[in-house]
Amino acid sequence: MSQEGTGVGVRGGRASSREGASHLLSEYRATSSEGILEAGDMDKEHNTGYRTEAHVETGSNGVCTFLLTAISIFFIILTFPLSLLMCIKIVQEYERAVIFRLGRLVKGGARGPGLFFIIPCIDNYTKVDLRTVSFDVPPQEILTKDSVTVAVDAVVYYRIQNATVAVTNVEDYGRSTRLLAATTLRNVLGTKSLSEILSEREAISHTMQANLDEATDAWGVKVERVEM
After folding, report:
1. Where do runs of H (alpha helix) occur along the chain?
2. Domain 133-227 is in which class?
3. Which of 130, 136, 147, 204 is the most exposed place for a label (fewest CB within 10 A)?
4. In terms of Cα–Cα distance, which of 192, 193, 180 is closest to 154?
5. pTM as predicted
6. Pick from 133, 146, 113: nearest CA to 173
7. What DSSP character marks residue 190?
């Protein structure tokens, strides 16, 4: 009887020891986690909260987009095949179409060349011409480095290398490029003397082309050539 009691006591002691060790281990992990959180994870909490709010907002927008898209497709099916006249669009070899759906840019980049489809009522698109375009920079009254006033004009050749960027990053890439070309012409020639302008026209044109090309890269514009 005493041996059995002793065995029970030993087993009970072992169980209590195991439970105590487990409890201590749990407390240690919790304490360590709290310490790590206090040391450097507060920013993660804020970021997690931000991502959660953004996810909820995106989810609600996604539901609205899905419902409106489903309704539009339903009406397309009801009015088929007449609806094809409104859904099918064509862009030429030298064009690209940038599509927006409910104000958001449609994934996949610009469409074209050839046929592409839109969903009426919720889609709108903008065609962009990829061919090289030229324009004249009006004569600019410039004061040279040696205090001589000259009137200089130029011709700029450019093309669109990224239709999506040209539509989304600048309101009017053509007008913006023209204004920037006039400003660049004045800035570059203002650092030259009259003799340098007359003798280094090719180098000045190359400098203008490089400066314009770098400045308009964010607009999806490629400046190919500048002639003074």
Report:
1. 2-40, 42-78, 84-87, 163-168, 173-189, 194-199, 201-216
2. alpha beta
3. 147
4. 180
5. 0.68
6. 133
7. T
CB-based contact 157:202 (threshold 8 Å): no
**CA-CA distances (angstroms) from residue 32 to 19, 23, 46?**
20, 14, 20
pLDDT of residue 59: 56
User: Are the C-beta atoms of 126 and 72 separated by less than 8 Å?
Assistant: no
Q: What is the pLDDT of residues 126-135, one digit of tens each?
A: 999 999 999 9
Cα 164 to chain centroid distance, Å, stands at 9
- 163: how many CB neighbours lie within 10 A of its CB? 22
Q: Which of 218, 165, 215, 146 is nearest to 185 (CA)?
A: 215
d(CA 62, CA 59): 5
- The whole-angstrom separation of Cα 211 and Cα 168 is 22
> Which residues, other chains included, contact 138 with Cβ-Cβ below 8 Å and sequence gap of 6+?
153, 182
59 within 8 A of 79, measured Cβ to Cβ: no
CA distances from 136 to 15, 84, 95, 195 (A): 92, 42, 23, 24
Q: Which two tokens stand for residue 8?
A: 């029970």
Q: Rounded to the nearest 10 degrees, how much is the dihedral formed by the CA atoms of 68, 70, 76, 77?
A: -160
Percent of the chain with pLDDT over 90: 57
DSSP state of 32: H
**Closest by alpha carbon to 182, among 141, 133, 223, 225?**
141
Residue type (1 letter), 203? A
